[in-house]
Design goal:
About 20% of the residues lie in helices and about 30% in strands. With about 425 residues, the protein is α+β, with helices and mostly antiparallel strands. The chain has 4 domains: about 1-145, Alpha-Beta Plaits, CATH 3.30.70; about 150-240, Glycinamide Ribonucleotide Synthetase, Chain A, domain 4, CATH 3.90.600.20; about 245-335 and about 380-410, Beta Barrel (OB fold (Dihydrolipoamide Acetyltransferase, E2P)), CATH 2.40.50; about 335-380. Helix 1 (about 15-30) packs across helix 2 (about 65-80), helix 3 crosses helix 5 (about 135-145) and helix 6 (about 170-180) packs antiparallel against helix 7 (about 215-225). Bound molecules: adenosine-5'-triphosphate (ATP). Adenosine-5'-triphosphate binds near residues 7 and 43.
């Protein structure tokens, strides 16, 4: 059977992954076999999310009625039901799983509560909703998701009662864990910005989480971390770091709230605005798209600032409020910069000056004239290739480049990459 749960936390505490890990342990203690524990990230632009729009699913062998009862009881006890934004949902399927298309839409787009209930009914699943029941969307999506590309996260939890106290996790042990296991693990630290990424600052039970390619790498990294004594630990199979949210897009057909991989040509010099946010205008067949590299993306903004009109790029990110929030970018071509200057006089060798708009150049010494400028090409510091935001600014779903280049079915829609090379 599959058990799905979502929307149990509030900004003041709790975390659906903690409830999932605890439920898995309770079911195991009752004699059930736990086959997998999943953490599925859904559309990162959803406004109802508390933090990272995560839902959980457990695959287990056992009595579905019993599992449904234990899961309901845990939700009643642990979910912060006093919070307006906490609207749990629970589903238990012991036959077919809901259609994978539901999960795809929940990860890349928008679903409804009615759609989630219909998906439960279509497979005869048991389900329950608390308050407005929005969590049923994430619960069904978590159970329905097909993980074609899967990664792991080793989550370590502290006592719920300590939710407001400072976490103790030794930073040097985290740095060592990353050094020893990268690129099998990633986003434990952000060496470039000298910050720790894997220890949250929110009042929830997560002490730290190690992300990586598989259970072996994350377990090895975890074994190197020194911290306060945890109360619970679990390894989740996830869609984090897989780019599952990206769909192939084409300017100007991008829809608000979806995330895209999209090609274009730099249309004007990037502009740095108030707060250090950088705006990049790209175009495709006469249509324009603004791509944003916000201040938290730190050094990534220097890459964007170094782009010039005419460079060709492939951009990845979420389309929100009419612009694409960059997660990574591929520079396809950044040809040498063409510089036009006044030529040297053929007769006396002095540098000519402009003879007026559209009139070419004139030598102030001997009076000779020339129509043609002197053309030179400046080599660029920016080279073709992929560039990404630093770990501290990375979206949960964004695939780090240490896992390889993005692979997005259907991209480029009716382009070939060769058009740009
Ligand atoms: P939690 O730890 O509680 O899961 P969270 O940051 O993951 O916190 P939630 O509190 O679960 O966020 O809030 C997200 C809400 O949005 C959930 O009710 C979920 O069912 C719903 N939701 C998620 N993805 C979509 C989607 N694509 N379309 C519509 N609703 C969605």
């Amino acid at each position: 059977m599959w058990i799905g749960i979502d929307d149990t936390d509030s900004p003041k505490g709790m975390c659906t992954t903690y409830l999932g890990a605890l439920l898995a342990r309770r079911l195991e203690e009752s004699g059930m076999e736990i086959r997998s524990l999943r953490l599925i990230r859904l559309n990162p632009t959803i406004i109802w999310k508390t933090r990272g729009n995560a839902a959980i699913a457990i695959e287990a062998e056992g009595d579905p009625d019993y599992a449904f009862r234990i899961a309901s009881d845990l939700i009643e006890v642990l979910a912060d039901l006093s919070c307006d934004r906490t609207n749990p949902g629970l589903v238990v399927c012991d036959g077919d799983r809901p259609p994978a298309a539901f999960a795809e839409e929940a990860i890349t787009g928008f679903c409804t509560i009615e759609g989630a209930i219909a998906a439960c009914k279509s497979v005869g699943a048991r389900y329950a909703l608390w308050k407005n029941g929005r969590g049923i969307i994430g619960a069904v999506a978590a159970v329905a998701a097909e993980l074609e590309d899967a990664t792991s996260e080793y989550l370590v939890y502290r006592d719920l009662r300590r939710h407001e106290s400072r976490r103790y996790v030794d930073p040097s042990s985290l740095r060592l864990a990353e050094e020893m296991t990268y690129p099998g693990t990633w986003d434990t630290c952000d060496p470039g910005n000298k910050t720790i990424v894997c220890v949250p600052h929110t009042p929830d039970p997560v002490l730290f989480g190690i992300r990586g390619n598989d259970p072996v790498h994350v377990s090895l990294a975890r074994s190197l971390v020194i911290s306060e004594i945890p109360v619970l630990e679990a390894i989740f199979e996830t869609n984090q770091g897989t780019d599952a949210h990206l769909i192939a897009g084409k300017i100007p057909n991008l829809e608000e709230g979806r995330s895209y991989i999209v090609a274009g040509t730099v249309a004007s010099s990037p502009k740095t605005g108030i707060g250090g946010h950088v705006a990049l205008l790209i175009s495709d067949h006469g249509y324009y798209l603004t791509c944003m590299a916000y201040e938290p993306t730190k050094g990534f903004r220097d890459i964007i600032r170094a782009l010039l009109p005419g460079d060709t790029v492939i951009a990845c990110g979420s389309f929100k409020n009419g612009s694409l929030n960059l997660e990574k970018i591929q520079i396809i071509s950044s040809p040498p910069f063409r510089v036009e200057d006044a030529p040297l006089c053929d007769i006396c060798g002095k540098k000519m000056t402009s003879a007026g708009k559209g009139k070419g150049y004139k030598c102030r010494v001997c009076g000779a004239r020339s129509r043609e400028p002197c053309i030179s090409y400046q080599e660029r510091t920016l080279h073709p290739g992929w560039y990404e935001v630093p770990p501290s600014a990375r979206r949960h779903l964004a695939r780090p480049l240490c896992r390889g280049e993005p692979v997005t079915p259907g991209f480029p829609e009716d382009y070939s990459r060769e058009d740009y090379i």
